[in-house]
Amino acid sequence: MKDSEGEPPDTQGRRWALILGVSSGTGAAIAHAVAKKPGLDVFGVHRGRYADNAAQVERQVREAGQRARLWQADASTPEAAEAGVLALREVAGPRSVKLFVHSIAGASVGRFLSEGEDRLHTRRIRRTFDTMAHSFVYWTQALVAADMLAPGARLLGLQNSLDQTHLSNTGLISASKAALEMYVRYLALELGGKGHRVNLLKFGTVLTPALKHVYSPEALARLEEAHARMNPAGRMCTVEEVADFVSVLVGDEAGWFNGATIDYSGGMTLRLLDLVLNP
């Protein structure tokens, strides 16, 4: 585990965003957006797979006039959560985290009963749940134990539309996201009386470096064409749109959201039956 070089600690009333999965995709876009509005410093955690992207995120946050500290680690374990929060406290001081975003991914795709290589073995199941669900609790516990949550802090998990429609090899992703949703609701109960808010933001497919790594250009073109037919808006959502809405959720106007699964999917699943029956 290691962090990037940054400015010396400044604990005089600054507000920070803690973002897991900050180096690419949605996490990177959120870091850039909240640095601009409402003007949060960013402590970002990443695995180091997209080092150039991480450096770019750091530059963007600082160009927006905010402090940035990036910390490289596997964020899915309770040990990493405790160490990461301690590293954050050294930079930011207590009661400084206004926004916590869980944007890490690391799920296995496959089938539970397959006899082939795509069988979802125990190790894959445990790893997926640690990454996609349990780590949200680990980091929340560490933040509370270290007295890091600022007044009116917002804790945000990210959800997809697989709770409404299913792909045959994504059962483990759907199950872990269902666990994440329950964690959000119960943490909202436990933290609501302290003035904090815990929510889940659901949005549709967005183009990320990870997606571009998995799919060929031809497959990506088909994916975009399918979403253009599926989405009422006639196009895919962008990571920038998601990130801008996260900035809204940090504001006082969104303070009554708590324990909610906020649908920001643009109606992505509304047309599915029509596409099947009237292709």
UniProtKB/TrEMBL annotation:
Pfam families: adh_short_C2
Alphabetized UniProt keyword annotations: Oxidoreductase
SUPFAM superfamilies per record: NAD(P)-binding Rossmann-fold domains
GO MF terms, alphabetically ordered: oxidoreductase activity
Lineage top rank: taxon: Bacteria
Keyword set includes Oxidoreductase: yes
Keyword Oxidoreductase on entry: yes
Protein family (similarity comment): Belongs to the short-chain dehydrogenases/reductases (SDR) family.
Protein name, per record: NAD(P)-dependent dehydrogenase, short-chain alcohol dehydrogenase family
